[in-house]
Amino acid sequence: MTLVGSKILHYRILEEIGAGGMGIVYLAEDEKLHRRVALKFVAKAIHEDPNARERLVREARAASRLNHPNIVAMHAIEETPEHIFIVMEYVEGESIRSIVKRGAMTWERALELAPQILSALAMAHEHDVIHRDVKSDNIMLTPKGQLKVLDFGLARGRDTSAFVSRMGSSAGTPAYMSPEQVRDGEVDHRSDLFSFGVVLYEMVTGRMPFKGEHEAAVTYSIVNESPTAARVHNKAVPDALQTVITKLLEKHPRDRYQSAAEVIADLERAGAGRGIPGRARRPRRALVAVAAVVAVVAMAAWFVRGRGPGGALVPEASAGRKMLAVLPFENLGPTDQEYFADGVTEEITTHLAKLSGLGVISRTSAMKYKDTEKSLRQVGKELGVEYVLEGSVRWDKSGGHNSVRVSTQLIRIHDDTHLWAENFDRVYEEIFALQSEIASKVAEELNVTLLAPERAAIAAAPTRNLDAYDLYMRGRAGYDRALGLGEMEEAIALVEQAVALDSTFAEAQAFLARRYANQYFNGLHPERPLLEKARRASLVAMRHSNDQQPAGHVAVGYYHYYGSRDYERALREFDLARRLQPNNAEVIEAIAFVQRRQGRWEESVANLERAIELDPSNSDRIGNLLQTLVYMRRWDDARRYVARGLALEPGGQFDAYRALMRLVESGDIAGARAILDPLLTRHFYFRTFMVECDIMARDYAAVEQHMPGLKSVAGIDTATYYLTRGAAYHFADDDRRARIYADSAFAFMNVRNFATSDNPNKLASYATALGMLDRNAEALRTIDRAVDIMPVERDAMTGADLRNERAIIYIITGEYDRAIRELEYLMSVPSGFSPAILRLHPGFDSLRDDPRFRRLIEEKVSS
Question: How much is the mean pLDDT over the chain?
Fold first, then answer.
């Protein structure tokens, strides 16, 4: 029985637009919000089964948190006595299946579009949501060229097989099912990747990889037969793309890609990717694997990633000062306004952080508690705060209105006392005054005295143009959730539109300045014009920042830090910013970064600990501190922070640090390998680390097993791959193959002009290849040039890393006396070497009989 023409709740049903095993989809008019929506009425069997209905609601709630530009937004789940239905964003456009059927899809176009699908899946999988029905009918292309993946409202988590079986369906479309779905086995995110492989095959060939006269024949083919190569149907498909499709369609999940991120990386290599996903807004420093030894400590920088909430570090510095957390304000409007509620939360947090008499937890840590089910007492304990401010935001733009309602409540945690609560109703044009008023009220309720400059600072409006402000909030939110370089650049483009509307918008100009400079520094876009854009934007931000606004100083500081490595000037700017916002964790951490580069290690540690105090759930900051402590060989402190990190975020980067500590402190290779082994499929960092352990264990068969998988992964440049593999063959006494890989590295670098580069890291890699090819004089000249460009006196971290590599090249070229002297220096300062590394790594075998080398290790073991 059709529902077309009926009205259910406030939805007027206009037409049926789709149907499937899990329900029927209608186009409807939401008469309350005056917008068109899609309503998915679930099957009667689910509606009549209380357990199934409860499970559906729970899983739909999880799916509703997937805020992503390539995922159809889910607005609500509604129930009446007769129906249960999901209210979703209505997407106009054409399905991928329809485009393929009319012959309008080329393999080049498929490669352009595929990363959008993968980006949506990556977001879902990160939140433990598995789609289970990825198919070309469920992917829509809008007139603007944006892909939208549908039916996440009926996606399932990892524990729903019993539920699916009760519904009498394998929760998938047969031709797109993975082998484990067909067998009704355990399903995880890799099943979605198999289904995506079917879609990709369909997009590039116009055919299905698994066929049959009936469903049973199709499912038999999926489980037992290999599909015909895509190139057979489309001879234009390049080899690299064929390789991706083949790996996606492997029968066993362990043989497939292990993440959507890996697929995007390989699609880039096939010619049309949109960037490498994963927390790319914080690029890691590459470790150049050289012929004789790798300073494994440098790997620590790779694992700095910000993720989930957890335990707090609250140093004594907070004693006697009121500590407050502004928890994420709930968005009571449509899902696509989530960024606005987050923006209001951030602005209030920023205002309160300007007050010298109040300690305010960083937004980064507070945002980890978005949609948390933890009690306020538990949140307060984890963040180390006495007070929380929470609230909700509703932005009403219906019926010609443009008003904002913000409800707030200030709570003292230990006795759950509501100190203050108030509702604010304002027109949108008063949003800046409203945010300032809330911050002032909080300060008043906490008896925090506002100094005149502080009062002026929180009253200042960031821009005169509300459209510019909206674009800035959208861009900032998009950047925070970006899964790849393409999405990062889309977010940056929104902020560029904001400054086009208001060039005096200091915060937006500062945002752009820092991102331009960061991309230049990390080699994502190493062109000088990008650095010049950073300079101009930072100067505009400075010019239009008011006397109490730190944005300009932060922007100029990062321009000097990233662009020219002028650390003195960077530090002056960051110090000025800290005077304006003494409780800004990001600014304090920036100061610590500069001090570390200046060789002021102890001061850097103190400021990193201070930043963690203000941002206790930010694993990024703990990772940065750990990296510093390991460079300093402060093993006791490092172990303490590894434990804190594991309590905060089990697994991931802190398991890597745990393995690292086993290796660099005590030389426990077996212990490090045992920690890494179950993690190898999670990220290439773990496999890279394992290769270094294999080399130190002199287990070259294991190196041979692990190395091939690194050649094609994101983040391992080709030169590093060749050098590392050449080194392994050298240690295994296979000089013929060692030279082959050294030649390959050398050819790769020559094409890219490493020899004439002014980048010291490229020069160091080039010097290593020269040394491996017995071009000793050139190798020594090249590494000396690299060290001269970036001496320790200019940059204590990069300079030490370069001298690490010079010590290695001295060994390669037979300059053993110079190698010993270099090592003596490096063991007297923070560096990437440790006594355990010197004892274990085969690269130092030629020095072991030298009494100076033995004394060096013996003198330093107990330090």
Answer: 82
Give the Cα separation of 104 and 93 in Å (integer).
Answer: 14
Q: Pairing between strand 94-95 and 84-89?
A: unpaired
pLDDT in tens, 335-357: 888 888 888 888 888 888 777 77
Global pTM exceeds 0.85: no
């590295």: which residue's tokens? 745
The SS3 assignment for 26 reads strand
Q: What is the C-alpha separation between 792 and 636, in angstroms, rounded? A: 26
Would you mind telling me the total number of residues written for the chain in this entry?
863
| CB-CB neighbours of 788 under 10 Å | 12
Beta bridge partners, 720, equal none
CB atoms within 10 A of CB 213: 7
Pairwise CA distance, residues 414 & 380, whole Å: 9
The kind and range of the H/E element at 328 are none
Statement: residue 577 has pLDDT above 80: yes
Q: Which residue has the tokens 């304990």?
A: 381
With CA atoms as reference, report the closest residue to 241 among 111, 357, 57: 111
pLDDT in tens, 6-43: 999 999 999 988 776 567 889 999 988 888 998 888 77
Residues 325 and 366: their CA atoms lie apart, in Å, by 6
User: Is residue 39 within 8 Å of residue 87, measured between CB atoms?
Assistant: yes
Report the alpha-carbon distance of residue 765 to residue 768 in Å, rounded: 5
> Rounded to whole angstroms, what are the CA distances from 211 to 21, 208, 256, 298, 516?
20, 7, 21, 50, 49
Of the candidates 863, 858, 857, 796, the residue with the CA atom closest to the CA atom of residue 829: 796
